[in-house]
């Protein structure tokens, strides 16, 4: 290869260049946010290709999301100046797993046209298996067991490998049997679940050393981005492919940042990154310390915040981006989330007037229910936005279900709504009954709800279905009669309670269920600003009609989790309140480790910003018509004063300035600072809440309830008004 450095190497700093040019042997790039880790990987691939060391098909490159994979392909093409002829092995662990299984599935008993089951399919299947065992599936919910299986698969454990205690924990010790039965059933269906996309290749490689050897020869270079968030199964998979017998080249390059490990709750093991040097003796470890992304203030704020975590490797970061015009990280207070959304909307409009591109602006939320307020506001303003990494608020499954109930109450002829909810939650109305009802309605040209009212008096249905349908009809009649005279938010809540819909999610043990319950609460809240249920439904149809076009210039709204690896000129971080961020659930379930993961998430959030980072907290959330006062996030206390501006609201609400935020929380030493990292942090936090309550609680004179966002609704405490 040529002596003169190709263009793509010219812009790199010496450490980056070292990481790119050390193509032989294992390399670990361990470095903070924005230091160019992903850029190193991309450039490395370009270098491998254009120096002719390997064909595109000989490179295995793993990204965290499909979107990141697409971007990486585009960038490589730009670097090597021309289209890259495919990169078949560049993708996520899952997409690469699918590809391997399509080729070698028969070695795991699958034919190449196997199907991949989604979560709903999986739960249905497990339920059948639980019932077939003669177990009560109410006592031993399928969803819960599906979650356990997923957890085992994340750890790379098959039925034979699961720990005794785990196996005992479900169905009186039948956990292992059920797991094995589930795997057998999958095989007979020629199907696999997501976990299998890793598990099967692992066992195929373990049982077929010759095949593994073939892949060792094929993959001359292996690269992994976001290595800190690999789970055990991914780690095992990777080690099988990357660890070669003595004397064979081990050209593996992993990049990551222990401070950005944010998927522990899904089984990611940050230890994998720490083990790299043991797994690959002689590995070259490259540290990158120069951040190219953010201003000094943004970097300073994030770096200081993360020092509050104990379990970390620690690293230095600096930036040359120092401009006297750079603003500090802004902390803003708002009265409630409506004001928060309004103010953020105004700021964005102002940026727009200054000709900032909307594509460079992002709103990163901790919990998806927070998106709703922003989406509504942006629709009102006519501001383009896109929701990244998930459906828009009103498109979510649970929101559509709930809306179907509301629609049917307001418009009894809405058959689509009827069909959506008739057996959600399960009422024992199977496909046959619904089809009979459908035919009955069609024959008489009447809406299904009316037909249901009719058909229950005939003998077209089995008694059980008739009873279930009678109950549904009675429910809807009652709700319709309440439509005019009951406050519509109360009615909405009543509908979700009485229909059993809320309970359905409360009984659901999947990881998504708590978030869905939060979204349902937010849905009710969002109705408050409308006069009637009908008015609200109209509004939603307008929101849903708003265009979402990939190409248009738009503000991005997404969760902090899906913002990993991305960057924006301006980042808004709303909802920095105790209970929301850090999230109560993480604290309750994860203790100190949970808190540290939340803090890493805050670090990820701040470091997405290039030029502007605006953090918001609200002091009140109005839920169920009650003012609930929230405490500002402890993470705000952990930001360094030198890099942060606290903006005082100019509103007349009073309070903020007086005992105030800026004064007591940044200028004076916080008596409880640093106590969180001691084992007694939880107690310290309690004390602190007590100490802070007088400053923050109860400004409105209403009864004040502190709110958390736990699984079973707000974990709240009522504090009487002064
Ligand atoms: P994260 O930890 O957030 O994933 P990262 O370490 O992967 O960050 P990159 O996304 O690769 O960082 O780089 C951050 C930004 O800095 C990008 O805009 C990238 O183009 C830019 N950058 C990286 N290295 C250089 C360099 N040597 N010269 C100029 N810009 C650079
Ligand atoms: Mg990156």
UniProtKB/TrEMBL annotation:
Region (Disordered): 690-716
BP term (GO), one: recombinational repair
GO CC entries: cytosol; DNA helicase complex
Residues that bind ATP: 31-38
One Gene Ontology term of the molecular function aspect: DNA binding
EC number(s) from the headed UniProt entry: 5.6.2.4
InterPro entries registered for this protein in UniProt: DExx_box_DNA_helicase_dom_sf, DNA_helicase_UvrD-like_C, DNA_helicase_UvrD/REP, P-loop_NTPase, UvrD-like_ATP-bd
TM spans (from-to): none
Occurrences of domain UvrD-like helicase C-terminal (ranges): 296-565
Main EC class the enzyme belongs to: isomerase
Coiled coil: none
Xref: Gene3D superfamilies: 1.10.10.160, P-loop containing nucleotide triphosphate hydrolases (3.40.50.300), PCRA, domain 4 (1.10.486.10)
Keywords annotated in UniProt: ATP-binding, DNA-binding, Helicase, Hydrolase, Isomerase, Nucleotide-binding
Catalytic activity line of the entry: ATP + H2O = ADP + phosphate + H(+); Couples ATP hydrolysis with the unwinding of duplex DNA by translocating in the 3'-5' direction
Top-level taxon of the source organism: Bacteria
Ranges where the UvrD-like helicase ATP-binding domain occurs: 10-295
Function per UniProt: Has both ATPase and helicase activities. Unwinds DNA duplexes with 3' to 5' polarity with respect to the bound strand and initiates unwinding most effectively when a single-stranded region is present. Involved in the post-incision events of nucleotide excision repair and methyl-directed mismatch repair.
Family indicated by similarity: Belongs to the helicase family. UvrD subfamily.
Record's protein name: DNA 3'-5' helicase
């Amino acid at each position: 290869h040529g002596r003169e450095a190709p263009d793509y190497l010219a812009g790199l700093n010496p450490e980056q260049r070292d990481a790119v040019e050390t193509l032989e042997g294992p390399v670990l790039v361990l470095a903070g946010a924005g230091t160019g880790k992903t850029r190193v990987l991309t450039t490395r691939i370009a270098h491998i290709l254009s120096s002719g060391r390997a064909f595109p098909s000989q490179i295995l490159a793993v990204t965290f999301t499909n979107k990141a994979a697409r971007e990486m392909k585009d960038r490589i093409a730009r670097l090597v100046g021309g289209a890259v002829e495919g990169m078949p092995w560049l993708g996520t662990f899952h997409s690469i797993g699918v590809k391997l299984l399509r080729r070698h599935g028969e070695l795991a008993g699958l034919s190449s046209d196997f199907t991949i089951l989604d979560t709903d399919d999986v739960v249905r299947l497990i339920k059948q298996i639980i019932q077939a065992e003669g177990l009560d599936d109410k006592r031993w919910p399928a969803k819960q067991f599906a979650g356990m299986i997923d957890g085992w698969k994340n750890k790379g454990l098959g039925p034979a490998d699961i720990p005794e205690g785990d196996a005992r924990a479900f169905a009186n010790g039948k956990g292992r049997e059920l797991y094995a039965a589930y795997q057998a059933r999958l095989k007979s269906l020629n199907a696999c679940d997501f976990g299998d996309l890793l598990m099967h290749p692992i066992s195929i490689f373990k049982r077929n050393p010759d095949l593994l050897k073939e892949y060792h020869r094929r993959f001359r270079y292996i690269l992994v981005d976001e290595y800190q968030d690999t789970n055990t199964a991914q780690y095992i998979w990777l080690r099988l492919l990357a660890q070669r017998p003595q004397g064979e080249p081990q050209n593996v390059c992993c990049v990551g940042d222990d401070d950005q490990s944010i998927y522990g709750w899904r089984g990611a093991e940050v230890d994998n990154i720490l083990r790299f040097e043991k797994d690959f003796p002689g590995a070259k470890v490259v540290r990158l310390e120069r951040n190219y992304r953010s201003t000094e203030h943004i970097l300073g704020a994030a770096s200081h915040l993360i020092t509050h975590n104990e379990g970390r490797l620690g690293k230095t970061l600096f930036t040359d981006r120092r401009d006297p015009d750079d603003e500090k990280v802004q902390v803003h207070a708002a009265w409630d989330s409506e004001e928060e959304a309004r103010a953020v909307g105004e700021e964005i409009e102002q940026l727009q007037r200054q000709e900032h591109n909307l594509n460079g602006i992002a709103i990163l939320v901790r919990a998806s229910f927070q998106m709703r307020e922003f989406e509504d506001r942006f629709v009102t303003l006519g501001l383009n936005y896109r929701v990244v990494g998930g459906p828009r608020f009103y498109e979510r499954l649970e929101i559509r279900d709930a809306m179907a109930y509301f629609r049917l109450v307001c418009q009894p002829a809405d058959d689509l709504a009827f069909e959506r909810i008739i057996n959600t939650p399960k009422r024992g109305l199977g496909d046959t009954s619904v089809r009979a009802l459908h035919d009955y309605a069609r024959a008489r040209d009447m809406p299904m709800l009316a037909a249901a009212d009719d058909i229950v008096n005939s003998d077209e249905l089995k008694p059980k279905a008739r009873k279930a349908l009678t109950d549904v009809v009675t429910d809807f009649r009652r709700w319709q009669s309440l439509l005019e005279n009951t406050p519509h938010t109360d009615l909405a809540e009543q509908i979700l309670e009485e229909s059993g819909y809320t309970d359905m999610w409360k009984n659901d043990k999947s990881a998504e269920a708590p978030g869905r319950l939060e979204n349902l609460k937010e849905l009710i809240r969002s109705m408050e600003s409308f006069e009637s249920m009908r008015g609200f439904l109209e509004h939603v149809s307008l929101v849903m009609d708003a265009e979402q076009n990939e190409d248009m210039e738009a503000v991005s709204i997404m969760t902090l989790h899906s913002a990993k690896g991305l960057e924006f000129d301006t980042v808004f971080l709303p909802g920095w309140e105790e209970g929301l961020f850090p999230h109560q659930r993480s604290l309750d379930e994860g203790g100190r480790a949970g808190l540290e993961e939340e803090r890493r998430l805050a670090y990820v959030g701040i470091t997405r910003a290039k030029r502007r980072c605006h953090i918001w907290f609200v002091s009140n959330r109005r839920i169920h018509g009650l003012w609930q006062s929230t405490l500002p996030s402890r993470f705000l206390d952990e930001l360094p004063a030198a890099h942060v501006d606290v903006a005082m609201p100019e509103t007349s609400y009073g309070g903020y300035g007086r005992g105030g935020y800026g004064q007591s929380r940044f200028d004076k030493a916080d008596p409880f600072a640093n106590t969180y990292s001691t084992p007694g942090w939880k107690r310290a936090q309690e004390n602190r809440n007590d100490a802070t309550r007088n400053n923050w609680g109860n400004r409105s004179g209403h009864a004040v309830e502190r709110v958390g966002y736990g699984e079973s609704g707000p974990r709240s405490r009522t504090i009487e008004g002064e």
